[in-house]
Amino acid sequence: MKATEKTLSIKHNMFWNTVGSLTNLGCQWLITILVVRLSDGYSAAGIYSLAMSIFNMFSQLAQYRMYTVQIADVERKNSAGEYLTFRFFTTFIAFAMLAVYSIATCRIGTVPAILLYALYKTAGLVIDVMHANDQVGHRMDYIG
After folding, report:
1. What integer is the mean pLDDT of 15-44?
2. What does the alpha-carbon distance between residue 38 and residue 50 come to, in Å, rounded to a whole number?
């Protein structure tokens, strides 16, 4: 980090982390409620639950717990681009496995919903790499 770049105090970083986490929680809750309320029955909620369950089976491979490694890299031995490239690689492998599993085990009508949910959650995993970079730079206001 350059000496001229502004960093935030721990108090401000904790505040922005809390704001971001609560906003994310609220959005997840709202999506769940909207899926049930805007559908004709409970079948959409079942498909949504199926998509979440299948994504969760493969999400650990996509995450690869890289966030922890990245924020511990305070000497920046690896660049954000290297972490991002690795995240794209693990995400691609997880997404391919998820797609094959979904096609092999689920009704074909549910596969598009599962893949769309996986794309939505995968975008968050990619953005997580940039969040780790911001955390190392003590700029959690960007994350929030």
Report:
1. 86
2. 18
